Automatic annotation (TrEMBL):
InterPro entries: Glyco_trans_2-like (IPR001173), Nucleotide-diphossugar_trans (IPR029044). PANTHER family: GLYCOSYL TRANSFERASE, GLYCOSYLTRANSFERASE. The chain crosses the membrane at residues 246-264, 270-287, 299-326. This is Glycosyltransferase involved in cell wall biosynthesis. Keywords: Membrane, Transferase, Transmembrane, Transmembrane helix. Residues 4-122 form the Glycosyltransferase 2-like domain. One of its GO terms (molecular function) is hexosyltransferase activity. It comes from Butyricimonas faecihominis.
Amino acid sequence: MMLSIVCPIYNEVRYIKGCIESIVAQDYPKDSLEVLFVDGMSLDGTRDVVQQFMSLYPFIKLLDNPKKITPTALNIGVTAAKGSIIFRLDAHAIYPNNYFSILVKYLEELRADNVGGICRTLPVNNTNVCVAIACALSSPFGMGNSYFRIGIKDVKKVDTVPFGCFRKEVFDKVGLFDEELIRNQDDEFNGRIIKEGGCIYLIPEVIIDYYARDSIKKVIKMFYQYGLFKPLVNIKLRKPTTIRQFFPVLFVIGLIVGGVFSIFTSLVYIYILVVSLYWCLAFYFALSNIRKIKRLGGVMLLPFIFFMIHVSYGWGYLVGIFKVIFKSSFSVVSNR
C-alpha cells in the first residue's frame, strides 16, 4: 500500500535533520513510500538539509510553497500525493520507527478516516523556561482534556489527533484544508470528517516526541492565534468542535468584568477569592510536577505559564469573536 507523507516546513534547520532521520528509519517498505516536504521558501539552510537527504533517498521530494502558510503547504502536498494513504507530519517532531506501520494497521482495523498518536512534549533545551513550557503543554490544568497532549491508556474515538494518518479518499469526500485558517486548519478539517459521519481515533501505543516552543513569548503568540481562529472554525462548521475551548475565554471575561465590577461593589471579596482559587490550583498542579521538572525554578515558572496560556488563548478567542462579528481580516504570521 503506497503511503504519501506530507510535511510543511519553513526555516526548520534546527529540527529537520532529526525529523527526516526518524522518517527514513521507519520499518515500512521504502518502495511503497513517498515523502513530500513542502517548503515556504526557507532561508536558514533547511532546503539544503532536505536536498542532502534527497540525494540519498529518491523517495524524498521538495515542493515549493510561496504563500508560506501551513494549510496551503498541506494542500500542495495532498494534491501531489500518489499514495492511497496520506500522513500529515510536522518537522518539530521525532517519530517512532513503527509510526507508519502501526497507524496504517489501525486505520484498516478500525475502518477509521484518521488516526494519530500521543504527543510526548519535550523541551528544546534544558533551561527552566523550556522545561516548564513542555510540562505545561502536557498538563491537564494547562491543556484540559486534550487527550493527545495529556495521554490516554486505551484506543479512543476523539475530535482531533496530531500528525494524522488519513485515507486519501477522505479528501475527495470532504475537500482540502481551508486556507483561510492559518491556525486550527487541522481542527476544522477533522470537524468536517466527523460531520460527514467519519471516525477519528487516538492510538496510545504510538508516541511522538514533539519539541515545544522555546520561549514564553512564542507560547503566548501560539495560543493567542489558536484562540483567535477558533470562532472562525466554529462558524465554518456551524458548531463548536469542543466544550473545553470556552473555558479560557470565560476566564478572561470573568477577569475583566469581575475586576471592573468589584471596584465599585462588595463583590471585590468574591473576585479575590476566585482569583486566589485559580492560583492555588495553578501552584498545586505545578508542585505535582516537581518530580518531572526536577528543579525549583521550573516549578515556580509553571503557574505563570499556565496563566499565560489561558489568558492568551482566551483573549485571542475574544478578539476572534469580534472579528467574526465585524467581518475583519484574520491574517497573522503563524511561523515559529
